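Proteins fold reproducibly. Next comes an illustrative record:
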Amino acid sequence: MSKFTNAAATAHTLSLTAMEEASRYGQRTAEIDHMFLALVVNEQLAGQVLRSLGITLDSARDAVTAQHAAQLESLGISTTMPEPGEIVFHQTAGYQWGEGPLVVIKKANESGARGDAAAALRELVVEPSGMIEAILHRLNTTPQQVISTLDKAEQYRSATRSAQKSRQNLAGVSEGFAPAAVEQVWALLADPLRMPDWEPSISAVTIDDEETAVTGSTWQAHARTQRLDGKPIKIKPSLIQQRVELLQKSEPHTLEWRFTYPDAPSANARRIRVELEPAAGGTHLRLSLTWERNPQRTRLPLIAWVMRPLARALVWLQLSQLSSAISRNFR
């Protein structure tokens, strides 16, 4: 990815996760503490560094809650902090960044900064209110230690994977993180009936009661025609029914599926592959998405060339949604 693309992708991912965290308390404005929680579960180097310091999502949430309670107590306000609920960001609306996070994002994108999650973390741990520093102390670390660990880790920075170039197919690869053990993530992904919980375009799966999902198994899926907030999704009737084939199942590390459209035989097929790897605080996800060009479709090289940048952006967005949905099941 270019610097601009990577910065835009980071801002999108952090915004989504931070606002999801805010929604657990019925808040519509994501503040610096929500940004910190988003960084803890971020798949980039920033999240890896925080988790290497022993910071988990649960411990970070506890530290944030304790710091808010301490701040209220310092003002002479004694109250019980409200219990968080489930993430309802996708069923509600009206979310925005607070002033503090916007300043952090701006500084992370200023001249010389990359605009990635690491740049955001560097700015966040030294934000002037001192809240994040206090939260880090509750997590037995300091801004200096976070920055020092980040400095060392960035010496071994790996290249960011993005959409892959292919004359025949459009494909992309992305990384993700789920705050749960590999076995828990595997249990989610390996159960066909739970596919709607993590595949945003699927609303239901039909499978025989006694059928076991093994390599080569197929089942019927129904596309989502309504968003979680109740708004309708425009979709061609011929694309609502899908046939899902399990291409690979290597427990507990690799799963791959192929999606085709029985009512639209000329439509391109879609292939999703997820690889799981144990990581500090949870599971590292490597996701790939490939759109297989149907050979029966007439190829228009000029139009394909013009539309390819947009198509690659859509592939990245689809991968981002997959990663976020998988992670959200454990948050």
Remarks:
- The two ends are 28 Å apart (CA to CA).
- The first helix runs from residue 3 to 23.
- The CA atoms of residues 202 and 223 lie 5 Å apart.
